[in-house]
Amino acid sequence: MTAQRIDGAAIAAEIKAEVAARVAALRAGGKTPGLAAVLVGDDPASISYVTSKARACEELGIFSETFHLAATTTQDEVLGLIGQLNTDERFDAVLPQLPMPPQIDEQLVIDSLDPRKDVDGLHPVNLGKLLRGQLDGAIPCTPNGVMELLARTGNDPAGKHVVVVGRSTLVGRPLAVLLSNKAKGANATVTICHTGTRELGRHTREADIVVMAAGHPRTLTADMVREGAVVIDVGTNRIEDATRERGWRLVGDADYRAVREVASWITPVPGGVGPMTIAMLLVNTVRAAERAAAGGAFPA
Amino acid sequence: MTAQRIDGAAIAAEIKAEVAARVAALRAGGKTPGLAAVLVGDDPASISYVTSKARACEELGIFSETFHLAATTTQDEVLGLIGQLNTDERFDAVLPQLPMPPQIDEQLVIDSLDPRKDVDGLHPVNLGKLLRGQLDGAIPCTPNGVMELLARTGNDPAGKHVVVVGRSTLVGRPLAVLLSNKAKGANATVTICHTGTRELGRHTREADIVVMAAGHPRTLTADMVREGAVVIDVGTNRIEDATRERGWRLVGDADYRAVREVASWITPVPGGVGPMTIAMLLVNTVRAAERAAAGGAFPA
Predict the structure, then answer these.
(1) E strand or H helix at B125, and its extent?
(2) B129 to chain A: nearest residue by CA?
(3) Distance from CA of A124 to the nearest CA of B (A)
(4) Which residues contact A152 (CB under 8 A, 6 or more apart)?
(5) pLDDT, tens digit (0-9, with 9 covering 90-100), for A143-152
(6) Do A215 and A237 touch, CB atoms closer than 8 A?
(7) What is the pLDDT of residues B153-199, one digit of tens each?
(8) What per-residue confidence (pLDDT) applies to B295?
(9) How far is C-alpha A181 from the geometric centre of its chain's CA atoms?
(10) CATH assignment of the domain containing A181
(11) Facing residues of B40 across strands?
């Protein structure tokens, strides 16, 4: 069989429409959600991401402002700005765009955020709540996007065996925790694989659902996938492609053309997980605004 | 074959001797490590645990004091005491003994601890650091004890497949994270199983190392274990035993007598993981004191 294609762009649009309705309700009550992006330097990819996020906010009625600092900005200046944004009531959410230039300690920047405004869910308080199974904080956007893709295509992971390939703090680790939670839309048996895993295929072949977050093209080949498995591909790798004017194209971690002949569902790259990340950032922003509107209570 | 018995008491004694040397070094420099235990009510098991911990501190040269409050103590009184202990320089570590009476919100108590003094490693900041792969905070005692048992019996989990059965915040979840870290003594492929897992035996039979933290006797039977696997049993369950004067005995989650005929190494219950938990509490206490002596810096 050929797998059904999971249309991340369509699902992201669905979620954005839901966020827009929540934003409208907040604005009707006199509260406009606000997102501050902190961009240091002139990395073209970072500028492009921040621009997309700002545009998405505008479309949905979220106030957003980008604080664009020079590449030579010092650590203390960045921390000073974060400190100001933490107490600036216009902003419910603060997004330090990563990567930052080498003189900036990114972890220190994240740790200096008010956890209530940490829209990426990477502050230790938010990651710690996640590990405790408390889902009322900000949940990292890409893992949360994967959960939504599964839920909204009817692929409930409950009771299934999910193999997550990759152990990054941004994706693999929080996703494994989310999937194994005793919660609706979760409750999966989860295996986490990584560069230290022997015989990766032995594990992926056992999986009902495989999530690739390894960051290497063709890590998952068709022989590593069980007939009828669901494949979610978080990878976004540039590979050379002389047929394209720009000389490259994006591919995931799975060998898409071959794997889709074995899988039951598969995300394309681009157009699968990618669009979900921004959608979940908007969800986290509106949730932070809803909490602030409810009096700023932050259940610890 | 019959498995080698992992002697948790002997390994815990080894670790305590190492802690005693570190305590002596601190005291030679004018710093006496201190642990405050907060005990609310008169639960006999809790009193017995706190007494054991205090005795272990005394043996090792750690100053300890138990704050024993009445069972009727209010939430605010407990939080008030924690607030005082957070700023009391005699104490590097504060241990709220759980469970607490029903009028006390345990999570709020844990969250009110200064993360630097959270000796159980259950504050969200410490759990979050763990999920980020930062091992410089307090690591929950029982999972850390399991890591030490593996390391000190030569059962390095690197490249092995470890199946953890149980997803509690106290044991299963942090242990799965610890084992999958890219770090010395870790780097395992980890599967986390739980009450929502279908065909548990299908997973445990694949494992090089099985860690049982399910909390139910005989969850792991011999047919669920691969020949030569290592079995670590965190379970401590009371079962009726008319041959004992007290009418019960402690058993683990594994069917010990049968499983030890299949496994290569196995922890007994009691005498396996149990003694390690207190040993790792002492390790966390001395680490907190070392950090305080170094100027209280707490790498975020």
Answers:
(1) helix B124-131
(2) A124
(3) 4
(4) A11, A14
(5) 999 999 999 9
(6) yes
(7) 999 999 999 999 999 999 999 999 999 999 999 999 999 999 999 99
(8) 84
(9) 18
(10) 3.40.50.720
(11) B69
Q: What DSSP string runs through A207-272?
A: -SEEEE-S-STTSB-GGGS-TT-EEEE---EEEE-TTSTTSEEEE-SB-HHHHTTT-SEE--SSSS
Q: Answer yes or no: is A88 within a domain.
A: yes
Distance CA(B167)–CA(B185), nearest Å, equals: 21
Q: CA A196, A199, A200, A205 torsion: positive or negative? A: negative
3-state secondary structure of B69: strand
Is residue A1 scored above 80 in pLDDT?
A: no
H or E, element range at A285: helix A274-293
pLDDT value of position B1: 74
Any domain includes B102? yes
CB contact (8 A) between residue B193 and residue A195:
no
Total domains present in chain B: 2
Per-residue pLDDT tens digits for B258-292: 999 999 999 999 999 999 999 999 999 999 999 99
In a domain? residue B37: yes
Interface residues of chain B, partner chain A, Cβ below 8 Å: 107-108, 111, 123-133, 158-159, 161, 167, 169, 173-174, 176-177, 180-182, 187-198, 203, 206, 300
Same domain, B109 and B155: no
Contacts of B154 (CB under 8 A, 6+ apart): none
Pairing of strands A248-251, A237-240: antiparallel
For A203, the closest of B133, B181, B189 (CB atoms) is: B189
Quote the domain boundaries for residue B183.
Answer: 141-275
Residues A98 and A189 in one domain: no
State the pTM of this model. Answer: 0.96
Contact criterion met (CB below 8 Å) for A241 and A247: yes
Burial of B104 (0-12, 13-18, 19+ CB in 10 A): buried
Note the maximum CA span of chain B: 56
- Together in a domain, A38 and A152: no
Mean pLDDT of B3-22: 98
Greatest alpha-carbon span in chain A: 56
Q: Report which of B236, B266, B254, B276 is spatially closest to residue B147, judged by C-alpha positions.
A: B276
Identify the closest residue of chain B to A200 by CA–CA distance: B189
Residue of chain A nearest B107, judged by CA positions: A300
Whether residue B297 is predicted with pLDDT greater than 60 in this model: the reply is no
CA nearest to B206, candidates A224, A197, A61, A244: A197
Summarize pLDDT for A33-64 with one digit per residue, the tens: 999 999 999 999 999 999 999 999 999 999 99
User: Distance (Å, rounded) from C-alpha A227 to C-alpha A218?
Assistant: 18
Active site residues per annotation of A: 53, 97, 120
Shared domain for A165 and A228, answered yes or no, is yes
Res. A300 pLDDT band, cuts 50 70 90: very low
Contact status, residue A150 vs residue A230, Cβ threshold 8 Å: yes
Cis bond upstream, residue B143 (ω within 30): no
Q: Give the domain-ending residue among B116, B133, B163.
A: B116
> Does the beta-carbon distance from A196 to B123 stay under 8 Å?
no
Question: Quick check: is A40 in a domain?
Answer: yes
Same-domain pairing of A31 and A149: no
CATH number at residue A40: 3.40.50.10860
